[in-house]
């Protein structure tokens, strides 16, 4: 099989992204050594880039590095402090796993990120593709990757049938990914194929006229780019509605509670919630504090998850008595989910 690596690497040298904040300084054209990639930065960026675009990640990455400049500072931070810097980026299990992994690396590897793929895959929240990308980019080790961008490129290039959520299709894509991965310049190839998917072979309107691999691309040859990757078989998302009780005391402070680690927004801080019906709302308010009473209802917030759509009805509840746990809105130091931020923005 012809490999896409040669034209891709040539394209990458001219058009790839070489100045992302987590990348090594490229070598000079005269052959000088650039600075090596910082594996902590590469690891963090690869975790943030799961399900998230580069343009969104850059700001979060810079802010995270500012608060936790190295692996030790991340391991020594509290989970709340880590989640506070992750808030808004979504998929919070990523942040909790990152934090857990940092602790494991401090304890089991004396603070040095392992350079063996089996040990990296064994860390929480790191799959085969992410581990391959980290070791390839940081140490130029010879590994293949199969993130969302690569799945899209290879699905089109070979007109792979089926959705990659199906085991058989995924297996085929891994096989193709391995066949294309070159032995030399593995780190550049890893970055190049991700860049191709992110900049030219995009989800909609791929820019085939500028693509370095168009000659051999089956989807381009047959004008079937929009058919690949084959879409996921459709399932109707269910709908759910909840009430969020925004307790406010006389000082205008609000009551937040830490959510359980498992489930949506795990480990973040949120308002108390209950089923969205009058009986349940009144019962929950009475349980919290008998003298509390409803002040007003705010505009509903809609939020979608992978499996369902959620409507949140925020209700302001005045709490006249002193109860522990109220926090000043202006001095919040904990991570809150995006819908909670939207509710806070509606408060006077
Ligand atoms: S030719 Fe078009 S569809 Fe094929 S890999 Fe390039 S950008 Fe993607």
Question: In a few lines, what is going on in this structure?
Answer:
The protein is built from 14 helices and nine strands. It has helices at 5-15, 39-48, 54-67, 71-76, 79-86, 93-108, 117-121, 128-139, 148-157, 167-180, 186-199, 218-221, 278-288, 338-346, and strands spanning 238-248, 254-255, 257-258, 269-270, 272-275, 293-297, 301-304, 308-318, 326-327. Helix 2 (39-48) packs antiparallel against helix 8.
Overall description:
The protein has 348 residues and is of the alpha+beta class. The chain folds into two domains: 5-227, Endonuclease III, domain 1; 238-346, Nucleoside Triphosphate Pyrophosphohydrolase. Helix content is 41%, strand content 12%. The protein contains 14 helices and nine strands. The protein has helices spanning 5-15, 39-48, 54-67, 71-76, 79-86, 93-108, 117-121, 128-139, 148-157, 167-180, 186-199, 218-221, 278-288, 338-346; strands at 238-248, 254-255, 257-258, 269-270, 272-275, 293-297, 301-304, 308-318, 326-327. Strands 1, 5, 6, 7 and 8 form a five-stranded mixed beta sheet that branches. A two-stranded antiparallel ribbon has the order 2-9. Helix 1 crosses helix 11 (186-199). The longest helix has 16 residues, at 93-108. The radius of gyration is 24 Å and the shape is globular. The protein starts with a helix and ends with a helix. Residues 27-33 have low confidence and may be disordered. The site of iron/sulfur cluster (SF4) has 14 residues, from helix 9 and helix 12. The site of iron/sulfur cluster has 14 residues, from helix 9 and helix 12.
